[in-house]
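REQUEST ID: PR-0412
SUBMITTED BY: lab tech R.K.
PRIORITY: routine
TASK: structure prediction, single protein chain
INPUT:
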Amino acid sequence: MDSEVEHDIDFDDEGNVVLKKKVKVAMGRKSRAGGGQFEARVRGDLEDKGWIVDKWSNNVFEGKLIPCRRKFNPFNKVMTIGTGFPDFVCFSRRGDLFKVIGVEVKMNGNLSRVEKEKCAWYLKNGIFSEILVASKIQERKGGKIRVEYVDVGEVLGRMRG
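STATUS: complete
OUTPUT:
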């Protein structure tokens, strides 16, 4: 009998067995790779526009700014450090002062409700003067990809109570 295995076996943080469909695992791998490439493109675009760009390694948890938890992948022997929200912190000199903004990279441009709440917290507490969402715009299939930036203030204005 020559049948292909439909599921991949994995373990969660507590050691419980988790079955994952191989098709979904492959899709996730491609999505993660595409997201990483787009993130690099956004970083290059911001640097070309004169911003100093760095990975943001903090997050908001229960109303406090905390350092991100590092993630270790034992199969690749890789430690992921930059898992903060937003993805980038950008600086630009404005005379004697610096303008500091946050940039979150999203392929589709949509923020989750939790991400919107974190953005509102950052703006309310004066961590960033503004937060931009970078999304991917492609006019036609196979055409040139460009980056579009949307201010989170516009997104938060549309948010329901």
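NOTES: The chain has a mean pLDDT of 80.
REVIEWED BY: pending
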